[in-house]
Design goal:
β15 and β16 form a beta hairpin. The protein has 14 helices and 18 strands. By secondary structure, the chain is of the alpha/beta class. The strands form 3 sheets. It has a 9-stranded mixed sheet, sandwiched between helices. α3 crosses α7 and α4 runs parallel beside α5.
């Protein structure tokens, strides 16, 4: 049996002025047979597709795949390019027995509110209704019934941190195989509770969400009477009408999937106030005060300061505050600033450089910070992830530099990259435990690596485009009268 695999993934922050371009996506894509080499054995959706297809001796037709993470909306030209390439690849590969697509579910463009659905629509137009299609989506996907009408089965990650990405690809591939062998299609039920939460509190290890997710995962069964359940948290920084939580059940029994999805959705409505965790959000001054006192009182384990509202890895609020206080033995990894990296590279290792760094992605990013430091490392840097999140994935930082700024270690990168594991330290000959205070910008994914080693995690709110209070953002598309917390 011949199965096409491919996809394009982007988590779009609607409010960011910087768009994700075709060049950005092409720089990290893999196409054709190179997809198999790039993703085999990795904790990625293509990695999960490949694992099942190879185990079942299916004939894979790799199309193209790219994943730009979280960034500004994709340009329309880039979207059209990838949609066209996927469809052209499908036409060339015909006849096919099945299609596996990896999509995020929270992508936007300047003129499209649901381009993920449009990709599925275009793919369906090429392959027809008789060819089964399974989709694997991010846990933060914003979805609705229009998508379900186009696909035969839809699956999402169960956990955030996303330690089960490949497993999700495997779930989709196994269901596709089932459809191809049996000639049947499962029933699907999608229920939206009308609840949005900031990304930091979509972490599935934090109660009460943790209990709900664990229960949904436990419901799954391969047979008799197939059932799969996904609780999608949605992505609240994409300004789209279908934003927010969704509960999706896929199974053999239409009545059962509706009952399961409705029951879990009702539970989310009941716990909506408790999902916001307002007591855990600190202002900058309080957060740094606590970090310094904890670091002094309990040395040996780093304190994590989470600058969570940063959506482009270049906010400078905590950098400015740490420098103002003269904090040492602290680290800020992966600040995105290609121009500053270029100047550090020109100066070379051992040189003292004066730079204006960060704060350039928008007028909410804090503005550039002037500093002087010594270049400790500089060069091109690519590596494969060693942590649980997307384990084995190729990370391409481009040119990078590590600076010592009066005892504060700052690494600069040319491509925006979240710090989600210890690689930003290990890859440069350091360890996270070398530092008393570490500033991170991840929302949930860092928890897999840092909860075991950190003394504590302090969530600091800043005025950037990913705040804890969603009601202060200039939404235009969400139905405020039907979505919490706007209708609270």
């Amino acid at each position: 049996m011949r199965v096409a695999i491919g996809g394009v993934m982007l988590e779009s922050v609607s409010f960011l002025p910087l768009l994700t371009t075709l060049a950005d996506l092409q720089a990290i894509e893999a196409a054709g047979p190179a997809m198999l080499e790039r993703f085999r054995g990795t904790n990625t959706l293509p990695g999960g597709f490949i694992a099942v297809c190879e185990a079942e001796a299916l004939d894979m037709v790799p199309l193209v795949f790219t994943d730009a993470g979280a960034a500004g909306p994709m340009t329309d030209a880039a979207f059209i390019d990838y949609a066209d390439r996927l469809c052209a690849g499908l036409r060339a590969a015909a006849p096919l027995d099945g299609v596996l697509l990896a999509l995020h579910g929270a992508m936007t463009t300047p003129t499209r509110l649901d381009p993920d659905r449009e990709i599925v629509e275009r793919v369906r137009a090429v392959v027809g209704r008789d060819v089964p299609m399974a989709l694997a989506l991010d846990y933060h996907a914003n979805i609705d019934a229009h998508l379900l009408a186009l696909a035969d089965a839809v699956f999402g990650y169960h956990y955030s941190p996303h330690t089960d990405i490949a497993a999700t690809g495997e779930r989709a591939a196994r269901c596709l195989l089932r459809m191809m062998r049996q000639g049947t299609r499962p029933a699907m039920a999608l229920v939206k509770p009308g609840v949005m939460v900031p990304s930091i509190f979509s972490a599935t290890g934090i109660a009460p969400l943790s209990g709900l997710v664990a229960e949904s995962v436990a419901m799954a069964r391969p047979a008799p009477g197939y059932l799969d359940v996904t609780v999608f948290a949605g992505f609240s920084y994409a300004d789209v009408p279908n934003c927010g939580f969704s509960v999706l059940a896929v199974g053999d029994d239409a009545a059962e999937v509706q009952r399961v999805a409705s029951g879990l959705s009702d539970r989310i409505v009941a716990m909506r106030q408790d999902l916001l965790h307002r007591d855990l959000v600190l202002d900058i001054t309080t957060g740094v005060d606590l970090a310094q006192s904890r670091a002094a009182a309990r040395p040996g384990r780093p304190v994590v300061l989470l600058e969570h509202a940063d959506r482009c890895n270049d906010s400078t609020y905590l950098l400015r505050e740490l420098l103002r206080r003269g904090v040492t033995n602290a680290a800020i990894p992966y600040l995105w600033d290609p121009a500053a990296v270029a100047k550090a590279a020109e100066a070379g290792v051992g040189a003292q450089v004066s730079l204006d760094v960060g704060g350039h992605s928008s007028d909410r990013a804090g503005g550039p910070v002037g500093l002087t430091g010594v270049v400790r490392w500089v060069g091109e840097k690519d590596y494969r992830t060693t942590g649980a999140y997307m384990n084995g994935r190729l990370v391409q930082l481009g040119m990078a530099a590590v600076l010592d700024v009066d005892g504060l270690t700052l690494s600069l990168v040319s491509r925006p990259t979240m710090t989600v594991d210890e690689d930003p330290f290990v890859q440069f000959g350091m360890r996270a435990t070398d530092f008393a205070i570490i500033v991170l910008r991840s929302k949930t994914h860092f928890r897999a690596a840092y909860e075991p080693i950190a003394d504590c995690i302090l969530i600091v709110d800043t005025p950037d485009w990913g705040p804890a209070d969603l009601t202060g953002l200039p939404y235009r598309q969400i139905p405020r009268d039907r979505v919490f917390p706007f209708n609270a």
